Amino acid sequence: MIDEVLKVFKELDRKDFRILMGIETGMKHFEWVPVEDVGKYSKMPLEKLEYRMQKLVRKNLVVRTTQPYEGYQIYFEGYDALALNTFVKRKSISAIGDEVGVGKESVIYEAIREPELAIGGPVPVIIKFHREGRTSFKQVKRVRDHLGEREHFSWVYAARLAAQREYEIMQTLYPKVSIPKPLDQSRHAIVMEVAEGSLLAKTKLIEPEWYLDEILRQVKITYSMGVIHADLSEYNIFVAEDRVQLIDWPQYVTPEHPHADELLERDVSNVLAHFARKYGIKRELGEVIEEIKRESGKGEEEAAGEA
Fold this sequence. Notes:
The protein is an alpha+beta fold and 307 residues long. The chain is built from ten helices and eleven strands. It has helices at residues 2-9, 14-26, 35-42, 46-58, 76-89, 137-143, 155-173, 208-224, 260-279, 285-306; strands spanning 33-34, 63-65, 71-73, 95-102, 106-113, 123-130, 182-186, 189-193, 198-199, 237-239, 244-246. Strand 2 and strand 3 form a beta hairpin.
């Protein structure tokens, strides 16, 4: 999908992006944005709009309907183009490379950005494009707090909320918790530093006990900051020579969440099961959970004392 967007991205000009942003604005009020409102939001006369709209539909950046009226939507391709345009304008990226990962509700691309001080070569980064809605509507609605009580929304809007939520919690956690540094966010996409090392699920560790302790230490720090990952497993932990990094945060919850204890236990149980299965390292789940909560309590007391 994004590969197709990249092929047409350089052919788009300022007026094309104005139209895409006009439809984006209109989708806050309409399921299908009437053509007259596209003209109003993009500040473009209808006679000049028609040709450009046909081009955007032809390039699959815009979807058109004629029933019960002529209206337009952007789906992920148009949203991808808008996010990339924003990142380029902000100099958050200077070029985008290959797809490097696909999750249940996201796709990851490698990219580069120019160094801030113009010293050295381009800096590698990744762009995570949220794709909320790949699973069923009911499943997404049940587990996604960021959708709140909304009953009617587009999938691109759901993806935007997921990206905003993930970016905000990454800004809160970094650098106290070992995660890739968040760099920028636009719509449904996040630019961040490249995670160091390799995925835990695909790595044979020489000192597995040290890595298990370090992962649990990061879980403790996270919990002491009032955050539970809520989707932690060997598939979203990166391991390098001297560190671990936790990734994928859109499903996080706080300890006040009605299922917080259950989600914390599931996170820790997933990690312990991996190390037990692959390395024969046994830890008692209840004792680990108790230690995480006890250490968190100490941290809160120390913070209150310093205040």
